[in-house]
Write the structure tokens for this entry.
Amino acid sequence: MKRPTLSRRAVLRGAGGIAIALPWLEAMAGGTRVGANARRFVSVYTPGGSVIDNGAGENRWRPTGTETEFTLSPILAPFEAIRHKLLVVDGLSMNSAVGEQHQAGIIAWLTGTTQQPDYGYSHGPSLDQVIASIVADGNVLESLQMAVRWGTGKSHGLLHPINVVNFENNATFDPIPPRLDPQAIFDSLFGALDPSTNSDLAARIARKKSILDFVDRRYSSLGQDLGARDKQKLDEHLDKIRELESALDDMIVPTDICLLPERIDTSDYNPTTGLDSADDGSVLNTQTDEAIPKVGRFMMDMLVMALACDVTNVASLQWSDTEAKHTFPWLGLDQHHHYYQHDGNFRPMECEQIVTWYAEQHAYLLQQMDLVDLGDHTLLDESVVFFGSELAQPPTHSKANMPFLLAGGGGGLRGGRFLRNEGIADPSHNNLLVAILNLFGDERTSFGDPAHCTGPLAGLT
Amino acid sequence: MLKLRSSVVACVLANGCYSGAAAGPDTDVADDTVTGDGGGDTGVGACEGQDGGLADRARLRRLTRFEFNNTVRDLLGDDTLPGNAFPSEVIGNGFGNDANAQPVSSLLVEQYAAVAESVAARATETPERLAALAPCTSTVTDATEGSCARTLLDDLVSRAYRRPLAPGELDEIVALQQTFRAEADFAGSIAAVIETVLQSADFLYRVEHGTIDAEGRLRPTDHEMATRLSYFLWGTMPDDTLRAAAEAGELSTPSSVRAQAERMLADGRSRPMVRFFFDNLLPISSLSALERDAVRYPKYTGAIGALMREETHQFLAHHIFEGDGSWQGALTAEYTFMNEALAEYYGVAGVVGEEFREVALDTTQRLGVLTQAGVVAGTIHSNESNPVVRGSFLVQKIMCTQIPLPTGDVLAEIKPPDPDSGATARERFSQHSSDPACVTCHLMMDPVGFPLENYDAIGLWRDTENGVTIDASGSVPGTEGTVDGPVELVRKIATAEPTGRCFALHWANFAYGRTHAEEDSCVQEAVTVAFTDSGFDIRELLVTLTQTDAFLYMPAGEQ
């Protein structure tokens, strides 16, 4: 019942843990991998869009110039060093974002579907989950979801449509909770690599196997006595248990490429602040906001290594959620992001400061991915990285001219360009979603709500 | 995932918004299907032919974080709230216990494994902890180890699974322990079994197989009934009394179930469940983390937020268990609970000490739970009070009247008003009453929220905003006349027909782990009738919920 484990890691392990150049057959052209399907997908969410209009009619996000000869805007300036692998995708509208303004936006971003009625979730799977089913290659995790300073504002401790980006590729499109605790993420992803924690690793794995084997049999036999619906529920649980079981058979091995990220102290960061997970409600931790920059960097370092170590091929990072009810003390901003978006009237200067900081973080992530040398290309080159938000312009919640960015070279994606998309026949962002999917070798022509999709957006490759 | 939450209003206007009183499918149920006298041994509201009224309900309910925490505390003495490491539940019915909205993520299963390991390690880390599981462990020798392990595991696993072990099941578990024993010491082998049990479906899910009774109907076994009662009323596993009653076959009749429910409600262990319910019904669970500008609201701190939440809980616990106990009474009570710090916050003199105590309200300013500072502050998520979200909370959550979201072009243009566009909220939100695109829907919310404008964004009383006297007039949809100020508002809400029905609906959703749907109408109507007849007695409502077909029987559809 275990999934095949003919992964690249297996090849590496076969070679005694020494990184060897693999026989890449595809031609390379300046970071673009012509003829090869993309292998990795990374989605990065930031709240509150950008500053498409600063109130004086000035678009602070849009580059100026032509497709190949352009100047980055003030907000995108942090990408200068990696601009040759960046594709700025302007001019699209998130037409499928129908529902509550923020919730429908975050739901539509990766699903291209409308919000279910009555403040529900999505009507379809998110793009990353569909891609995961295509590119999964015996990885420890089919996909990885992480979030920094998540669950702010009014979600009251529940996984809420105001904070969910990822939805399962199953019949009910279940919302997927992101991982929040940086130390727990480290232990899950890299614990086995950490010499300080794996002294009796073999015994531990043997014990875990016996436990999961017994648990596995309990789920199988119990399901026999129940109705179809309950049996299906247990089967879904059992599938996830088997993921854990196969992960035990598939421990990652350090190589020249797969390195243990530096574990940093995050004891000043409470990952469940805002979630109200403590019964007494005493979870407010004023240090937590201050720790966001270092925790964010730690999360990005782990994300890059999760890909480099083949823990997964699909990763998702959320910076906060659509509530964005946290402050930015390191920027000298002591109100929360939503306040600057519109709760305290639109403050374009402060919004620009915040989204520019997010751009700096994202540029760091891209650069780190580009530093992972896989022989004749980098990790970034075989990836597609999608950066987006739930809306474009904070005070109006407008979802026209979405501030989308693509990066990487997977599937022939060509960076170093600015796609203005002005006056195209259909600017619906569903067309971008299906075009991204095509980079992974999936040839479908529609994604998400078909009412908002007329075919793949041209110009990515 | 069909969600029919509550009374859907009947009159649909041209622009897609509703207006008028809440009335709908619930009240369309013919009276002759309801036989809810609650007397004798027949239960409340027989709904035969409707599969217990919950035809499409899953039989498996997974423990919520709240229930997991309570269960490991009672099973293993672990009071570290380890379930808080699990990812949040999805919204579902608002309590996280909707059996049809409990998806399994990879992260959840991974956390089940991690938490099981740490809980098992704690439960066996000292001889004292081990002895608490079975006294024989304190004198265990090579010769007695086998029998001691068997004794320990028989007791522990049957309690964890909330049922007697099946023939041969204990042998399998002992064999598992023996496997671990080959590589670990005695305590380590017990820990590994505990780690296994805590990840088993028998523990994480409430499994119901049911049994056919003398009348040929499918009902929960007595142990399954003990589990139903225990998780509903205590949020945890059955205690010894319930287990003994199940063992003796004494949980098969409505009256025996009623007797247990009454015992359990009278027991202090029901208080945390009531607290959990109201934490999820009212906007009070994040009061210690409100985002407020410290310069503008110097009196608000996280500590004060926690006290506001405590006020609501202390008040409700007193009102329900020692006071008049009715929901209407809770909405119009002339008293609340405060300690010195909170009284100082409110500007109330004469309350001394940390202990909360009963305080009479100035009933020109406050009346009942809906006017408590935490409840009016908790709906607000910024520095500005907002009559729309306050009104929306009262209409949708307290009266269960749905207000549809705007659509299309209207939606795209909506933004909160500029804080500088008017001195008072009524001025800032004036577009809602002048713009035809807004007015129909906002007539359902804003007039309910305006009377609460006498409370600022941290729940304190004010007569003016920015120097302008607040006009706190408003009205309640579906009722006659207007109100002036919060006290008149809550009196009106308390007596409005949808309010009692709505409260019963939330409790039924919580008790049965569901989101109300069409097929529940018969059971729901029976519960509402009984609740109304009891004078909206909350304790009686909780007992009534154990007397319905939905609680006493199982859907016959799937075996």
